[in-house]
Design goal:
There is one protein chain. By secondary structure, the chain is of the alpha/beta class. Helix content is 35%, strand content 15%. The strands form 4 sheets. A 7-stranded parallel beta sheet has the order 16-15-14-13-12-19-20. It has a 6-stranded mixed beta sheet with strand order 2-1-3-4-5-11, sandwiched between helices. Helix 7 links the parallel strand 7 and strand 8. The longest helix has 29 residues. The relative contact order is 0.09.
C-alpha cells in the first residue's frame, strides 16, 4: 500500500472558477496530515511532481485533457481526476472520478454511488414528472404523442472534450451513414442543445433522411420519464447515458466524454466535502460506508455551481410555488400595471397591431352577397351533414380535423386555428390539413414559422391578430379583420369577423353550444371551464354590430345557450348517423 508523501492539488481547469477549488481545498486540508501543495497551473504542478519521488506523489485534479492523462501515466505519476457526472437526474449532482492507482480505487469503493441509489433517483423523478403531466392534462393541456419516435439529440460543437485531442465534439454531419440507417418506420424529431439555432440542422437532417424533421420541444426529463416508445440518438449528450436508468433506448454515435458505466465511478457531491473522504484517499484506508437510506441533500452542488440544465424545468414546469413567489414578490402588481397600459394603448391606437398583409387585404369584400358558414366543434354539430358542408364557403375551427376519425374527409375551404398550445400539440395534423385557405392567429403563425416554414410557403396561410383585452363582450367588434379582430372567448367569433371583412352578407353558425359540460363533437371534454357568460355577451354584441351593417348572423344548430335566431338549413340531418 502506497504511503503518500506529498499531495499536489491543481486548482484550475476549463470549467470551474478559483472559488470552487478553494471550497474543496478546505475539506481536503482538514482531512489529511500529508503535505499538500496547491497549484494554479498544470505545468507548475508537473514540474513539482517530477522533482519529488513520483511513486509517492499524488495529483488531485479536475477535467484532465486526454494528452495530459497519457503523459502522467507514461511518467508513472499517480492521479485522481474528478468531473461533474453526466448523470444529472438526481436531487443533486454527482462527481465522476477515475484514478490510475489501485489502492485509491480500493479505498473509495465504499463511497461509490450504487445502482440502487440511481434506480431510486430515477423512480422518484419519473413519478414527479408523470404526476405533473397528469396535472397539466387535467387542466386541458395535451402533450404530443411521442409513441414510435426517434429523437436526434444535438451537440454543442464548442463543448470542451477532455478525452479528445480535438477542440470539440464532431458534428452530427460526421455521422450521416449511421443516421441513414435509422428505422424509417418511426417519426424523427430533432432536439437542439442550449441556445442552438436548429434551422440548419433541421434542413440537413430532412434532406439526408428524406423526411420532414421537426424540433422536439420537450425537455430531457420529459423524454426520459414519459412512457412513450422513444429512441434517443446522439453524439455525447448527457441524456444518452441517463437513458439506461429509465429503460429508454439510446444510440450513442461517439464515445462519451465521461463514461460513467466503464472508466468513471460516481460519488455524491456532498461526499467530497467530508474530511473523512480525503482522509481515505491520503491514507489509502478503506472506510466502509453503510448503504444510503436517504437521497442526497437537495440541490447542494446545483446551487454552488449554478448548474441546472433541464432539471430546472422539472422544478418549475407547471409548479405552484415559483408562480406564486413571482406574484407575491411584486409580479402580480407588475402584471396588472402592464395589462392596464396595454389595454390603454390598444384603445387609443389608430395603427394596426401588425402590418396589413397583402393576402388578407386581397380578401376584403371578395365574397360580397354570399353566405358563409362558421362551424364550431360542439356536440350540436351532429345535427348537420358535414360532408355536404365541406364544399361550401365554411370556416372550420381548431380540431375539426378530428372528424376524419368518423370517416369524414376533412378538406375545408377555410380553416381557422387560434390556440397556440393546441398548435404545439397537433401541429403535424394541422399543417397536414388540405384547406383552400388557413387563418392562423399571429402567435400560432409565429410558432409555425419556426417549425413549418417550408409548409407555410407552400400553403395559403394568412395570419390575423386577435386582441383579448378589451374583449368583444365589452363592446368591441372589428369590421376590419386585416387590422385586428377582438377575442370573444372562442375562435368562432374571430372567424365571424373575418367573414364580415370578406363581405359575406349572411353568416350562419353551427356547432357552437357554449355548454362546456358536454363532450365535443369529436368525443372529448374541456376540463377547465370557459367564461361562458362573456362568450354569450360577445355573440349578442356581434349580432347587434353586424345587423347595423346589414349582415345577418344566425344559427343552424339548436344550441340553446347561443343567443342567435335559429334557422333551418339544407344541411340538416333528418336523423344523425354520427350520434
Amino acid at each position: 500500500m502506497i504511503q503518500w508523501q506529498h499531495l499536489h492539488y491543481l486548482m484550475t481547469d476549463q470549467y470551474r472558477g478559483e472559488t470552487f477549488f478553494e471550497f474543496i481545498a478546505e475539506a481536503v486540508q482538514q482531512g489529511i496530515t500529508t503535505a499538500l501543495t496547491k497549484y494554479v497551473s498544470l505545468a507548475s504542478a508537473l514540474d513539482a511532481i517530477s522533482s519529488d519521488d513520483t511513486s509517492k506523489s499524488l495529483l488531485i485534479c479536475f477535467n484532465l485533457p486526454n494528452a495530459t492523462r497519457i503523459e502522467l501515466e507514461t511518467k508513472g505519476i499517480f492521479y485522481i481526476e474528478f468531473r461533474v457526472s453526466p448523470v444529472q437526474f438526481g436531487k443533486d449532482l454527482y462527481l465522476a472520478w477515475r484514478t490510475n492507482c489501485k489502492d485509491i480505487e480500493k479505498a473509495l469503493e465504499g463511497y461509490a454511488v450504487s445502482d440502487r441509489t440511481l434506480n431510486l433517483e430515477a423512480a422518484h423523478l419519473t413519478s414527479s414528472v408523470r404526476a405533473q403531466r397528469r396535472k397539466q392534462e387535467n387542466s386541458n393541456t395535451h402533450f404530443i404523442n411521442l409513441e414510435k419516435t426517434t429523437i436526434i439529440i444535438g451537440s454543442d460543437e464548442d463543448y470542451p472534450a477532455p478525452d479528445s485531442d480535438l477542440t470539440g465534439l464532431p458534428s452530427l454531419t460526421a455521422f450521416s451513414e449511421e443516421l441513414t440507417s435509422l428505422d424509417r418506420g418511426r417519426r424523427i424529431l430533432y432536439k437542439p442543445i442550449g441556445d442552438e439555432d436548429p434551422s440548419a440542422m433541421l434542413t440537413w437532417l430532412s434532406d439526408l433522411l428524406n423526411v420532414s424533421v421537426k424540433v422536439c420541444h420537450n425537455n430531457a426529463y420529459q423524454l426520459l420519464c414519459f412512457n412513450d416508445d422513444i429512441q434517443l440518438v446522439g453524439i455525447s449528450a448527457n441524456i444518452l447515458q441517463e437513458a439506461k436508468w429509465f429503460a429508454k433506448e439510446a444510440v450513442q454515435l461517439h464515445a462519451p466524454l465521461t463514461a460513467v458505466t466503464s472508466e468513471f465511478k460516481q460519488i455524491p457531491f456532498n461526499t467530497v466535502l467530508l474530511p473523512e473522504f480525503w482522509h481515505a484517499i491520503a491514507e489509502n484506508r478503506f472506510q466502509p460506508i453503510p448503504p444510503p437510506t436517504n437521497l442526497p441533500d437537495h440541490l447542494c452542488a446545483r446551487e454552488i455551481f449554478d448548474s441546472w440544465g433541464d432539471y430546472e424545468k422539472v422544478m418549475n414546469w407547471g409548479r405552484t410555488i415559483p408562480y406564486f413567489s413571482f406574484l407575491r414578490s411584486g409580479g402580480g402588481t407588475l402584471i396588472t400595471r402592464l395589462n392596464a397600459l396595454d389595454r390603454k394603448s390598444r384603445l387609443d391606437s389608430t395603427e394596426p397591431t401588425v402590418s396589413h398583409t397583402t393576402a388578407m387585404l386581397s380578401l376584403k369584400d371578395s365574397c360580397a352577397g354570399k353566405t358563409a358558414y362558421v362551424l364550431g366543434n360542439a356536440a350540436s354539430l351532429n345535427e348537420l351533414n358535414l360532408s355536404r358542408l365541406m364544399s361550401e364557403d365554411a370556416f372550420w375551427c381548431n380540431r375539426a380535423f378530428e372528424m376524419e376519425k368518423r370517416g369524414i374527409t376533412f378538406s375545408p375551404k377555410y380553416y381557422m386555428f387560434a390556440d397556440l398550445l393546441g398548435f404545439k400539440n397537433f401541429s403535424e395534423k394541422i399543417m397536414g390539413v388540405k384547406a383552400g385557405t388557413k387563418f392562423f392567429r399571429n402567435d400560432v403563425y409565429a410558432h409555425a414559422e419556426q417549425d413549418w416554414l417550408a409548409e407555410l410557403k407552400e400553403q395559403q396561410v394568412i395570419q390575423f391578430t386577435s386582441v383579448d383585452d378589451p374583449g368583444m363582450h365589452e363592446g368591441f367588434f372589428s369590421m376590419d379583420a386585416a387590422y385586428r379582430t377582438y377575442c370573444g372567448r372562442t375562435v368562432v367569433l374571430d372567424a365571424i369577423q373575418i367573414a364580415a371583412y370578406m363581405g359575406y352578407s349572411k353568416i350562419l353558425v353551427g356547432g357552437v353550444d357554449l355548454d362546456y359540460s358536454q363532450p365535443y363533437f369529436f368525443g372529448t371534454s374541456i376540463n377547465g371551464r370557459m367564461p361562458e357568460n362573456e362568450a354569450i355577451e360577445a355573440f349578442r354584441f356581434a349580432h347587434q354590430t353586424l345587423e347595423k351593417n346589414g349582415i345577418e348572423l344566425k344559427k343552424i344548430t339548436h344550441s340553446p345557450q347561443l343567443p342567435l335566431e335559429y334557422v333551418a338549413s339544407q344541411f340538416q340531418n333528418e336523423k344523425s348517423s354520427l350520434s
